[in-house]
Amino acid sequence: MPQFSIRLLVFWASIILFSGSACAQSTYFFRESTNPGYYDSGLAFSSGNSTLKKGGPTNDKLLLSYLPESGNYSLDITWKSMPGGDWSAFTVAPGFPAQNISNHDTLAFWAMSPQGLSASLLPTISMEGGPGSTKSKKYRLRDFANDLPAGGWVEIKVPLSTFFQDPNQTNILFTQVKAIILGQDTTDAATHTLYIDEVRTFRAESPISLPQPVSGLSATGYERHIDLQWSLSTNPLTAGYRIYRSADGGNTWLFRRQIDKSTQWMMDFVGDVAPGTAYQYQIRSVNTQGRTSQASSPVSASTRAMTDDDFLDMVQRASFRYFYDFAHPVSGLTPERNTGTNTVTTGGSGFGLMAIVVGMERGYISRADGLTRLKKIFQFLGNANRFHGAWPHWMDGTTGLVIPFSQRDNGGDLVETAFMVQGMLSVKQYLDPNVPAEDSLRNTINTLWQGVEFDWYRQYIQQYMFWHWSPNYAWQINFQLRGYNETMITYILGMSSPTHGIPGSCYANGWAGSNYANGGVYYGYPLSVGSFRGGPLFFAHYSFLGFDPRKWKDNYTNYFTHNRNHTLINRAYCIENPKGYAGYGADCWGLTASDNPDGYKAHEPTSAGDDGTLSPTAALSSMPYTPEQSLAALKHFYREHGENLWGPMGFYDAFNLQRNWFARSYLAIDQGPIVAMIENYRTGLFWDLFMQNPEIAPALQGAGFTPDSVTLAIDARDPLLFQMGVYPNPVESVSVVRIDAQLSDHFTLTLYDLQGNKIKQLITNYLLTEGKHEISLNTDGLSAGTYMLELHADKTLLAARRLISVR
User: Fold this and answer.
1) Does residue 720 surpass a pLDDT of 70?
2) Which of 222, 293, 328, 744 is the least buried, fewest Cβ under 10 Å from its Cβ?
3) Which residues pair with 227 in a beta bridge?
4) In 3-state terms, what secondary structure has residue 619?
5) How many whole angstroms separate alpha carbon 466 and alpha carbon 457?
6) Before 698, cis peptide (omega within 30)?
7) Whole-prediction pTM value?
8) How far apart are CA 604 and CA 599, in angstroms?
9) Is the pLDDT assigned to residue 19 strictly greater than 90?
10) What pLDDT is attached to residue 17?
């Protein structure tokens, strides 16, 4: 049976499955695969009119299919058996090694038929082994299995004595078995599908004792899924857990899936069922021989209707697990991604500090447990590698030694360090100075962050800072922190440092001194700074988890307003969908850096930056800026794609409907902003905490920031409800402004030059009713040039169009 998709929830202290003495008892020819497409070690052949589904670069590979109910990719054996034809599906261990199974006694695998399958229609089973690709005799699986129920996983076991003791057996060598083979049997000329997983041989004689029953099973119901949690087994011979579900009050129990032994969570996505639909669950532990314990006491949970707050809490709670349950056991820091092992990330761990605060604040963990984890993290950071105070991008989670991010990036990473410090200073203000243990942690935080030498990273006292420094390669990477991107927090903290501060002039003349201003209007939304259409959305997230952009503005903009417009531009581009990708729309949007079908990319609303991949973190981490639109996206992701997109630690990293691809990955730098920014929307917690640090406000003032006030609420007049055009353009003495309004309100139409100077007020406080309108535009006397025509309601810009005069 397929292991749960998050076999990756590996708690590092546990031993590897089938380790030690049990290793010789099991040989796997196929286990869970998280690789979509095809199984490189699987071979598929057919002849005559018989067919077998196959693919790969040479069109002779077994295919893999992702099964939401099992949580991973399984072998897809789809065949049609015809008289005079034949087919064979070879399952080979990765790397094509020869396996010695002569001391084993059982061949087993898990099988599932989506429509159900009579035992009489099952394939044959055989082996290949020895020189010359010698094949064993074929045996009929119908002799070892019953009928398969529709959609239910069944373990099929074949005694190896069937092969070993058959006097008519061929000259196959069971010390050199290369493949387990399924093949044609009944020729019924119909197409059938079996999903196959966990193909293995093992020794079950002289059985070890039965596993102990599992304790601590609990279940929580949501709108379309049930969360399960249990206590991990401490028995070293435990191989995993088997989950069973009943939908009829415990009368019938169906096997759902097997979970890796180091995982204590499962998400059972039940789909679009009525609120109040009840399910019961049992769990059994399984040992390395496949023997199961007694079933646990059943637990029940029901689906339920959910409020907006319920959805937000669901996402925060699940995403929090990445930073708490999946944390490295020695350091407490956060792995870079869920496919990693010992590599922890500095910036993502800074986001994780905020997630731990959310966990304490919302009762996901006790305050005592949260403080214990924070203490572990800060003690580890105090002893880890630092380079003029800056931690590296990656560290070994056990030793604290640097793990190079690239050849020359084996030293300090000032930006990742800034993300860590942003989290530290938020934690510091959350801790109670009147409680000695918490005050001690506050002092530790002060020591750690005051040790960061921001001034060193100016490199010879320049007006800007540099991202990296290496003891081996010095400044060779030469990445200047200039121009608008995700690194603004580095300057805010550098100016705030009481020990290694940089002058406020570095902000105006360094950070904002080159390639900073924008001034364009996209889809009716103006952008004061940054790149064309704003760039990837993580620019609006990473520096603003703690820094509150609502209450300050610099010489260019209020960054809350800027980030709101940046987000709305990103969404508007996805609605326009100029490249015609599947799935894009008003509730399905979000382009940012994330995994994609070909690797990893910074996705953005440009032709080159858009490959059809959407990332849930883009919309969800924008919750404070666009709560209505982000909540709609959250519900769409969950309801329309949750079967493939929702996992035990929240939404997976990304998806691409054009290519029918869903990530199975979680990334710390994508999960963290979801937890923190949803909290900022709900309570403003981290914006309040971070800004309470006494060093921040004077640093902002020293850089030329002035107090400002922007409401969190989004104006109900969504600019996407208004379309405006000018015809003809270039304009003639009288042109026409065409407006399509989807609601009624009073509007103002104003003409500006490209520097923002008002040229002419064309219409003031005009009642524009819902529908299509044409308004005459008199442009007599307008000098030759390019202008901007803007439609406003109160202070909300609803549409803008460039207007050209050639006279």
Assistant:
1) no
2) 744
3) 220, 267
4) helix
5) 5
6) no
7) 0.78
8) 16
9) no
10) 29
